[in-house]
Structures are given as C-alpha cells and as structure tokens.
Amino acid sequence: MIPGTFDYHRPKSVSEAVALLADLGEDARPLAGGHSLIPMMKLRLAVPRALVDLAAIADLRGVRRAGTDIVIGATTTIAELIASAELAVALPIIRETALVIADPQVRARGTIGGNVANGDPGNDLPALMQCLGASYQIAGHAGTREIAARAFYQGAYFTALAPGEVLTGIRIAPPPAGHGWAYEKLKRKVGDYATAAAALVLTMRGGQVASAAIGLTNVGDTPLFAEDAARILTGSALDKATVDRAVAAAEAITSPASDGRGPAEYRTKMAGVMLRRALVRAAARATH
Amino acid sequence: MAKTHVTMTVNGQAVEGLVEPRTLLIHFLRENLSLTGAHIGCETSHCGACTVDLDGQSVKSCTVFAVQAQGADIRTIEGMANPDGTLHALQDGFREMHGLQCGFCTPGMILRAYRLLQENPNPTEDEIRMGISGNLCRCTGYQNIVAAIQYAAAKLSAPQEQAA
Amino acid sequence: MNEMTPPTAAERTDKLQGMGCRRKRVEDVRFTQGRGNYVDDLKLPGMLYGDFVRSSYGHARIKSIDTSKAKAVPGVVAVLTAADLAPLKLHWMPTLAGDVQMVLADGKVLFQNQEIAFVVANDRYVAADAAELVEVEYEELPPLVDPFKAMAPDAPVLREDLAGKTSGAHGPRKHHNHIFEWTVGDREATDLAFRDAEVTIKEMLSYQRVHPSPLETCQCVASFDKIKGELTLWGTFQAPHVVRTVAAILSGIPEHKIHVIAPDIGGGFGNKVGVYPGYVCSVVASIVTGKPVKWVEDRIENLSATAFARDYHMTTEIAATKDGKVTGLRVHVLADHGAFDACADPSKWPAGFFNIVTGSYDFPTAHCSVDGVYTNKAPGGVAYRCSFRVTEAAYCIERGMDILAQKLGMDPAELRLKNFVRREQFPYQSALGWEYDSGDYHTALRQGMEKVGYTALRAEQKAKQEAFRRGETREIMGVGVCFFTEIVGAGPSKNCDILGIAMFDSCEIRIHPTGAAIARMGTKSQGQGHETTYAQIIASEIGIPADDIMVEEGNTDTAPYGLGTYGSRSTPVAGAAIATAARKIKAKAQMIAAYLLEVHHDDVEFDIDRFRVKGLPEKFKTMKEISWAAYNAVPPGLEPGLEAVSYYDPPNMTYPFGAYICVMDIDVDTGVCKVRRFYALDDCGTRINPMIIEGQVHGGLTEAFAIAMGQEIAYDEIGNVKGASLMDFFLPTAVETPKWETDFTVTPSPHHPIGAKGVGESPNVGGVPAFSNAVNDAFAFLGNTHIQMPHDAWRVWQAGQKLGV
After folding, report:
1. Domain spanning A180-285: which CATH class is it, in words?
2. Which residues in chain C (727-766) have CB-CB distances under 8 A to chain A?
C-alpha cells in the first residue's frame, strides 16, 4: 500500500494556499491531518498530483470567540477539540462526539476541517455540525464565503466546496446555557465508523421541549438533519407516543448502505434507537 | 521523482534525509534511519504498530508523510531507555507483567503508553484501555498490557509520593 | 565462601528457574527495546522488492497480460508471469494437502486477488507503481461462491487442470468441484443408534471463514548466490525445515545448499505454515536477477490471499436417551477449501483431526464424513490457533450438546457431567478412533461451576427472563458452558507425516565447559516464548540455571530437523525431545560425576543441580563441575564433551482439556453483546511456566472472542472478497476485549516425558463454543435453537427479531 507520486506544497497563509490550489487545478488537494486522505492514497483510490499542506498556516488552528459565536479553525485537531476548555463549557457535545471518533492517535492528527469537508458520510462531525446549525467558512480564489452545514452536503464525497476552495473555519452559535445534549453512537469497535449515530441538542421549558435539533450519522449518502423529528418533539413532554413518532420520522429519512455494519434495515432501526437513547440522556442533562 | 530534503530530531539526534514527498514517515524511520523498532501491521491506520511520538503526541507513522514531519521532534522505541542507559519503567513493566508475546506490537504499544502516562500519570484501567485502543495486539488479550502500564504508572509516580 | 551456609534445596531450585516457575521472558529484553529482528527489518546490499499484480475477479479467463508499461518504469528489473515460470516448472506448486496450486495465474484466475504477475524493482515504491501499470485482459467466467452449490450438476468447472481426474490425493472425486470425501466411524452402528434413539437433534452448524491475521504479515527475503549455487531464504516460517525441503524439491537446488532462516516472527497462528506464491516468486526473482529480493505482503493481501481458516458447514446429529445419555453422533461436513486444496494438515488427514468431534463424551458409536469442495475463494484451511480442524470439531460437539440439553430440558452442564468420559476410563478409546491419554473432566467442570457460582447465575438468568417477559428490561442474559477436549502434538509417525516426513521433533543440547549451554530445536516460536520455557525444561532436567542456557530456533543450518510450531505441538513433541536429550546428557553426567567422586555410577543420584553420593549428601559434584570435567577429565573409555541430540517420535497425541464458562448480557434493541465474565479452567498437564500459560490463555480467548463475535471473510455473490482490511475484519481493541479469569487443574500426560500437553490453542478451541453457547443460551427461553456465527450486533439483533423480541 504505497501512495502515488505528488508534489508537496506547504503554504504559510490561506491566501497562498488558495492561490496554489487555483494554480494547480483540480488534481490538487488540500492536506490537513491526512487521516482520511492518506489511507485513500495508499489504496490508490485517491491519486492527487499535488498536496497543499495546511499545517503551517497558524491562523487555521484553534478555538476562538467571535462575539457570541465560537469559531473553530479548520486544522484544529480532534484531540484539541477534546482538550478545549472553551468548548467543554459552551459546546460539550463536541467533546462527547470527538471522544468517539477513531482512536487517540488518529484524533491527534485528524482535524475538524478534514472531518467535515471531505464529505465522507461515515464521519461523525458533519451530522453534529448540522445539529448545531454551524456554518462553514470557505476561502477561494474569488474570496471568502460562508455556507450552512445543513446546505453543504450533496452526496457521498460531494459537497458544496468548489475546486480550489478551502474550508478555513467553522462558526457555531452555542445553544443557551442549560441545554441538553447527547451524541449516541453505535459502532462495532473503537476506530470504526458508526453503524448509526444521533446528535441531539435540546432545550426544555417547564417540562416541555422548547427546541430540538437532530443530526444523524452514516445512515445515508450524507449526514442527515432530522428536521421533522425535531419538530414533532418540540412542545412535547417527551411522552412515549411523541418519541415514537419522532423516531419514526427520523428513521423515515434514512437510506443507509448495507455493509459489514449490517443490512440497511438494521441500520435504519439503529438510527432510531440511537435517537431514543440520545433523547433520554439529553433530557436528563437539560437544566431548564 | 524529485526529492525533498527533510530534517527532524529523532530520539534527541538531528537527522536529515532526501525523500520523495510520498515517503511515509514509517519508511523514513525504518529504511533511511534504520530504526526498525516501529513496525507496519495494517497500513490503514488501524493497528498502531507504527506508533511513534511526534511533537508530544502519539501518531501512526504509516499515515504521516515524512515531509509533514519536517522540523518535528520524534521519539521511537529506540529512544525510550533512560539517559543513564537503564530501561524506562514501561519497558520494565512490559517484561515484568508479561505484556508482550510476539513483540511486534510492543514498540508502538510502549510509545502510546508513554504518551498516555504523560497526559494522565495515574490512569484507571478503563482509561488505559481507551488510551491504547488505537493499538492492536493479537497475542496478549491486552490484560497483561494493562497491568504493564499500571506497573509503570506506579513506578513512575513512586518517587514523587516519597518526596511528598 | 566456605563459611557461608550452603544454599538450601529450595534456594538451589529457585536459582535454576526451572519448570513451574513464572520465569520472566528472555525474549522481552530485545523486544521492549525495538531490537527484535523481523523479516522486514533485514536489509541486504542491492536488495530488490517484489510486488504482486492480483486478480480483480473471482473467476475469469486471462486473455492477455501486457507487462510492457511496467517494465518501462525506471527501476523495474523484472516482471514475472506464469509464462516466465513455466520453463522452470514453477508456475504451479504442490500443496501440503496433495493438490497443486498456481504460483502465478496460468490461463485463468480462480479467486479475487489471486497472484497474476510479480513485479521486481529496486524500491518498494517503484514496484507498487509498476504493478499498477500491468494490464490484464480478462474474460469473466461464472463464479462459484456458495459451497452448497459446488456439486450441482451445472456448477461451473473451476479446476480445468483436473479435467478427467476421477480421484485425487484422498480417493475418489464425485464431481468436477469435489476434492475428497473422508469418512470415519461405524456407519451401520450409528444409523442403528439413531433408529432406536428416544431423542435426537439435528442442526447445521456453520463455522464461518476467518483468518489468523497475525500483526506481522507473511514476508520473505530470498538471496541466491550464483557463484556458490546457494539459496538463503529468510521468512516468516512456522516450519522452516519443511520450507527448506519443499524449496529443494521445487527448485532443484540441493537441500544442503539451501539455508532457511526464520528470524523473530510477529505472530503466526497457522498463517505462516504453508508455502505461498510470494516465497516462490521471490526465490525465482533472486535467481533471475542475481540479487536479494524482498517480498512483504500488505494487510489486504494477507486477509484475502494467504491462508484462511474454517469455512466448515457441519450437519450435526446426536442421539440420546430420554434421561440424557448420549447414544450416537453423526456429522456430515461440507468443507469449503477455496480454489486449491492448500490445507496444512498431516498428509493422511484431509479433514485434520476432525474426528475428535466426539469431544469429552462417552459416545458408544459415531460416524463422520467430510466432503471437501472447490469454490472461487482463496485457498487455505489452515489451523488458526488450533490443532488441525479441532476448533471446528469442538464447536460442533459443544453446540450440539447445548442443543440436546435444550431439547431434553436439562441444564447444559448437567448433561455434560452425565456423559463425560470418566477418570477411570483413561486411556480411553473414542468411537472415532483416538486414544485419549488422560483426563479428569468431572473435577474440572465442577471446579469451574463452583468458582463462577453456576447455580446462582442460572437463578439470576431466570429472574431476568421473567423481568424481560414482563417488559421491565430489554436486556437478556446467557451462560455459555463449554467443555473441550483437544488433540494436539502431531504426531506419531504411525499416522502423521507432512510430504512423507514423519512428524517428530528434535532438540540438540550442548553444554559448554563452563556449564553454560546452547540448545536448538526444530520448532519455531512466533511469540510463545520458547527461548524462555525450553530453557526451563532443561534447567529442571539437568540442573543448569535457565539463565545459562541459550535457546535457538529457526536456522536450518544449525538447528536439528523438526517439523515446526503449529497445532500446539511444540511442548508435546519438541518439549519431549528436550527432556530426552537432557536425560542423555544427564546419564553421561552421572558417569562423569561417579568417576570424579570415585564411586560406582549406581551409587550417585541426581539432586537438583548436582550428583551426590547416595547416603552422603555432602559428597557431590555440581553440574558446573561436571561440565568442566566433561572436557578434560572424562572416565576412561568415554568420549569428551557433553552434548546430545534427540529426535522424538511421540507414542500418542496429548489431550488437553478445559472447562470454560461465559456470562453474556445482550441488549436486544441493538444486538450488542457484552461479556460480563469469562472463566477459563485449563488442564494442560504439567505446567512449565504459569505466567506464559496464562498469557497464552488470555491471547487465545481474545482470538476466540473475535471469531465468535465478529470475524468473517465474506464474499459477495460474484466472488468479491468483503471486509479484507482491518476496518472491517474484527480484531478487537483493548476496549472490546473482555477481562479473563484463568484457573487450572493438572492431569499429566502419562506418555510424555514431563507430562506436559500443550496449551496455546486450547483457549481458541474452547473459547469459540463458550461465546456462541452464551449467545444462543440467552435466546433459548424465547425458542431459539441455533444462531450462526459470527455473533456481531446486527446478526444478533436479527435473531432477536425473528424470535419476536
């Protein structure tokens, strides 16, 4: 398992990276942690002619506040997400999710940008970003733009990212203090993609769901934003009948592949089970 | 293919070499530097046999290009012994607690355990199991690896307790 | 020194670190410092690298192979195809099972990832690049994937080379895809037992295709010296001496000019017994290029092309009385061998020792038949951490006994206790032809039941079942009982050989003048710790500290000929050779001691680390003194020196056994199974190093857990191999792996010089049925009879759905 040949570039700034990608054309790929791309290259399923390594661009790394929002740089590693005190307080679901991604070594190299940008439906963070209503900051030759995570994914490995564009950061408005959250993931073993997983954030008011957002991982060609399920839950006291209806609505939007993790029917049902379990944990965590 | 000049620090020594951009760090270590302690077991970043310490983190060196490690500070199993030549507590622990059999996963496992104990000097059993979950062992069933890491953790923290 | 109190007998014994002590491993000193010496660590001047072009299809005719683009890549030295090997008659090779196998595809391919061309270049990256450029034109042929369809009248013809051959190495062939039928037992008596039976069960029990997948893949370096006409071959060989003989037969190079070296091996588990195309191609490439050639398999190649295990489909019937006494066993196996019969069994045993299938039970009669068939899958059928087909047999009988217990409404442990071969029946003649050497099954199972609190577990299970029925929980609980008897230590020359070579093993011990020693054996450790344990045997036998004994294996120039390490044969066979060689040395040492002590040799006796005059313990000569004397003061008429060689042909196999109990909790909503507790009692006879035994048990149980709970090399309907990487092939991490409780009884083998039986494979053999029985037991109260392995979450969930949970 030897990757094909490529030219290697290590720009110092986003503008330099974007200019390089524009010059090099479609056969060039940005390289962040490389833990999706390099295995694909070793299998020769990806054969880029040039890699533009983003590691030396200091601006792209780290978690910072932008007003009330939080912006996470694209090359912030999964390990850094876990270690971030800021995120632990404002967005604890990120830490919970990050801890079930791959394994310690992969988390040390893998980045949030790579995880959300490459369009692999198996990755955990895209559904979470949809759940959180995150938007992706994108730089390209023509300038910068921002696109909602909920509008970003078009198919397996197909996203709204145009050739030559680089995802530079992720902006998230944290849910209000006291929100409930859970990322519930079923997997065969540590390091595996989800058989099915559900990301859930909700707020409660007077024993009723005031708001809810749900993302589903690896049960379709893209991450799934389960809007109907969330709407069904809103205003309810999470009684069994409502939860059953919400789960059914979430299951209805799935179209998982049949693979080693199980046949499609099973994975659809597991998306429902994960949502059900996420609801129990998130509701217990919600303080008002 | 044009080659790139890379420099890095490996086990405290400055090293350099000419590599293709695609040269994997594990091959640079094993072939260019003849540091054959780290192994290749799966090539898809699942087994962890190639684990080395890179700038204070455990990484799978089969999934890092040598050019990405330009300027990095790397430690491999060959650099684990103490400066006075005695073995590191983990190296002792793996032998004392029978934490290895065929030995193929051991260098990666010890390097991972080293970083784990840097981050968490007194891990619980569950924390150890999670901490080494990126390293596969086919021989031991992990039970004695966990014991070996516990042995090392106790040994490494012992002097501090005496001082306190 | 003289004023000091002489060491006590206990102190002298401790100093030896002989049998029974938890001696730390000598191997670990190098392994913990990254100083192991594995094949891929070897670098020779001018070394070239080989890489394979492999088949995209499961079954296809090869219309053309164009190597021109690959050959044009700078750095490529050669590209070999079958056409290049044919003049040397090396495009096919014999298998250990009496079949032949393509080295490189000859006209057609018979499984996906089959070897088609071998690219040799000055760099492994260049070889990989060039392999991509070899163009193969295929004509797809209908694939045969399902073994149950292999012998259909209209099944595609896989092996055109066998056209018209109505018999193979193991007798008549019934069909163009049939390999052999092997039968054993009394068919008539068994039929009669079933005719008269009060109760019978019948179930088809499948043991899926899995793979040993050691962490180090298969690899070699071949170096042919044209001037000397000598070949040196380093490789991941569990049986290096056999490899040398095979290499001599295949290549025509005289055997004394072939040097096979197995350095440190990163796990074998049966994967590294056979000879693979990579080895043959590397040798040919070295001969052709005059340079050393290295071949290193990648993980996908390992999982998809070298040596699968199992793929046994066992229709199992047991006859019994109403009160639970077994009266007959009938098993038919459909064995999927893939494209070539490359099983690594002793020659006369096409289904290995599957006839251990009567297990630990006193079956008055039994009959077993095995049909081997070809399919478009990788060849293999190796003994993955088990003696030959013994894990299949143990799974068959242990699931069968549980199914019978369920039908009878008996507790599975009670049924076993009722039918065990009793202690006084040993040596016991089984209905299918084996003579079990020793055992005490009742003691072992009762000890296990007591340790786990078996009665309380059953009570808890019953309460949980009731709670489940009331809808109070979605978790169910299973208790898996397994009592296995293995047959290991192949084997006696009267019934065991490989390519005609009897399956003895060997040991040579040389005591140096200072009392230090080197010992060499015909086996080869892959992690079992031979360097440590073998020295312990010698230490106890002849009184030299284990630390003063170097154990060396794997170099065919220096080690005595042996058949290698697999099938738990190292301790039963080589361990016996060590003891017998040591006893030869001891006998000579006794002569020397008597001479030095000026008494008759009958008047001295061995005492831990010395010979002493009987009745005068203060008059003695230590082994150190005797060693020195062996080189300068031997009795008249005796040759100087102190060394011995022993080739040991065992009189019988050994029969380790054990009682395993698994407690499993199952979440029926997800199918996720969690092992709450696993208790393993092993009786491997005399215990040489308890630390290493426990380590072997931990490791074997972990492999058994992986097999039962998730491992599978599957193929889709057109012959594409699925799951052949560590993303999908289930090798559990420390997180999934349960914690293991070990225990033991000791029932020595009566025929083995030190009473040892072997242990490395027991946990795999006994573990798989224990896990599977636990899963099946959990669902039994809902009407379940049998759920096929692997018990991964989705299959368990599906089973629950079928039962209406």
Report:
1. alpha beta
2. 727-728, 730, 732-733, 735-736
